[in-house]
């Protein structure tokens, strides 16, 4: 075999690239995988707090629905490699999985290293060659594809671009593939961080760092306009807010021309209506005697959060529950459902789990992942303008689009 000539060259050994290489090699294609890092799957190892949220406990329709309108692009990819196929793949490689209460699927070991090891075991049983520490400088196409690295010139019949986006640039995802895609005539939609922590300069937020609220409702407000809504857990940090719910609404913040004008509305008690909270406060004000109002609220919220709500309502922290005036009670109920936190932005690509934007989907054949502009060029994974919510959806899209690209190349 001429090592300078291959049937398929995969650029990027991340989630999508490794699955593309496995599928193509198992079809009998001569496959070379080029990875700029010294190790493959760096972002896999970093994901999910180093636990790697493999997929979500749903069917293909459930994955598609969570992506909204762009989700229809995934129909063929999920038909080629489904959620069930993902689980079968890992189970066959000896990786036991578990479903958590949120529907997220993790390895039982809680180790992303085990996920990557399973993928590499499967890859090693194929004839694919993995070249590490060999970044692609450029790709040209005088006749067939010519892939240029610092070490050599490589000829290929097919090229699969799986270079990722710009999120976690420390993992090597620095947007290299966009330039190559543009070289072949592809439109790149503006990129921005997604699934990224939110920032605020409100002092009390930083003072609450380390406290988690397991179930809140969030809405990003631009004046009176609601840009995004989500419900889930939220964690206070020194810079602002993180956790599933803040991450899921972050893409509208990072994509806004003036994120500093946005406000995050927090519903601290999403299971209760405002009238129900008002009635509860009325009953407690009659029954609690000389208890402090903060103590009453602490039945449902962390004590420090109770102090914040009282201050935001302009009620004294040591206010007694007894004899709570109707106007004060209604203001307090309102604040529990609509606590405002002015935002300043996000932590950017450095801390983003995925990238919004990328190669325009209407220029890629969703049935094969092949470019509509350049035959023989394929795309898979985060390089595409396709980003989903937290919960394993983005990994499922990577596995599935990678597999379909490998099946088509």
Notes on the structure:
The longest helix is centred in the C-terminal third of the chain and has 16 residues, at 393-408. The mean pLDDT is 96. This protein is an alpha+beta fold and 409 residues long. The strands form 5 sheets. Strands 1, 2, 6, 7, 8, 9 and 21 form a 7-stranded mixed sheet that branches. The protein is elongated. α1 (15-26) packs parallel to α14 (393-408) and α10 crosses α13 (326-337). The chain is 34% helix and 25% strand. The chain folds into 2 domains: 5-192 and 354-408, FAD/NAD(P)-binding domain; 197-347, no CATH class.
Question: What is this structure's SSE topology?
Answer:
Blueprint (H helix, E strand, L loop, with lengths): L4 E7 L3 H12 L4 E5 L6 H9 L4 E2 L3 H7 L8 H6 L2 H10 L4 E3 L4 E4 L4 H13 L4 E4 L3 E5 L4 E5 L3 E9 L14 H8 L4 E7 L3 E2 L3 H5 L4 E11 L2 E12 L3 E3 L1 H11 L8 E5 L6 H14 L5 H5 L5 H10 L13 H12 L1 E4 L2 E2 L7 E6 L4 E2 L4 E2 L5 E3 L13 H16 L1
Parallel strand pairs: 1-2, 1-9, 2-6, 9-21
Antiparallel strand pairs: 3-5, 4-5, 7-8, 8-9, 10-18, 11-14, 11-17, 12-13, 12-15, 13-14, 15-16, 19-20
CATH superfamily of the largest domain: FAD/NAD(P)-binding domain
* Rg over C-alpha atoms, rounded to the nearest angstrom: 25 Å
Beta strand %? 25-35%
Determine the fraction of residues in helical runs and give it as a percent range: 25-40%
Structural class: alpha+beta
CATH hierarchy, class of the largest domain: Alpha Beta
- H/I helix tally: 14
What is the CATH architecture assignment of the largest domain? 3-Layer(bba) Sandwich
Q: Which fold name fills CATH's third level, the topology of the largest domain?
A: FAD/NAD(P)-binding domain
Low-confidence residue ranges? none
The first-to-last residue Cα distance is 19 Å
């Amino acid at each position: 075999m001429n090592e300078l000539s291959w049937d398929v060259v995969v650029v990027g050994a991340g989630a999508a690239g490794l699955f593309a290489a496995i599928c193509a090699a198992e079809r009998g294609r001569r496959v070379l995988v080029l990875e700029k890092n010294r190790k493959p799957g760096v972002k896999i190892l970093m994901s999910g707090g180093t636990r790697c949220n493999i997929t979500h406990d749903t069917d293909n329709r459930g994955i598609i629905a969570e992506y909204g309108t762009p989700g229809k692009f995934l129909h063929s990819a999920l038909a080629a490699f489904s959620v069930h196929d993902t689980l079968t793949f890992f189970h066959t490689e000896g990786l036991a999985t578990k479903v958590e209460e949120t529907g997220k699927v993790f390895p039982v070991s809680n180790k992303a290293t085990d996920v990557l090891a399973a993928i590499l075991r499967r890859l090693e049983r194929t004839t694919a060659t993995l070249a590490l520490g060999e970044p692609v400088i450029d790709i040209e196409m005088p006749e067939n594809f010519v892939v240029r690295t610092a070490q050599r010139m490589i000829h290929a019949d097919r090229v699969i671009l799986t270079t990722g986006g710009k999120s976690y640039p420390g993992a090597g995802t620095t947007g290299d593939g966009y330039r190559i895609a543009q070289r072949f005539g592809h439109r790149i939609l503006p990129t921005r961080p997604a699934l990224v922590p939110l920032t605020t300069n409100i002092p009390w937020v930083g003072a609450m760092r380390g406290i988690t609220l397991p179930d809140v409702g969030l809405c990003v407000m631009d004046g009176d306009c609601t840009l995004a809504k989500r419900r889930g857990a939220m964690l206070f940090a020194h810079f602002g807010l993180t956790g599933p719910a803040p991450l899921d609404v972050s893409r509208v913040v990072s994509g806004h021309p003036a994120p500093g004008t946005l406000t995050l509305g927090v519903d601290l008690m999403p299971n209760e209506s405002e009238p129900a909270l008002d009635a509860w406060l009325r009953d407690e004000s009659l029954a609690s005697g000389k208890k402090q109002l903060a103590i009453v609220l602490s039945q449902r919220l962390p004590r420090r959060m109770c102090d914040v709500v009282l201050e935001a309502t302009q009620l004294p922290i040591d206010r007694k529950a007894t004899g709570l005036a109707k106007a004060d009670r209604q203001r307090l109920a309102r604040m529990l459902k609509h606590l405002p936190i002015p935002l300043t932005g996000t932590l950017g690509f450095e801390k983003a789990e995925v990238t919004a934007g990328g190669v325009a989907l209407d220029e890629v054949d969703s049935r094969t992942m092949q470019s509509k502009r350049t035959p023989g060029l394929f795309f898979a994974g985060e390089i595409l303008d396709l980003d989903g919510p937290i919960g394993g959806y983005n990994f499922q899209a990577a596995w599935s689009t990678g597999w379909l690209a490998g099946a088509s190349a």
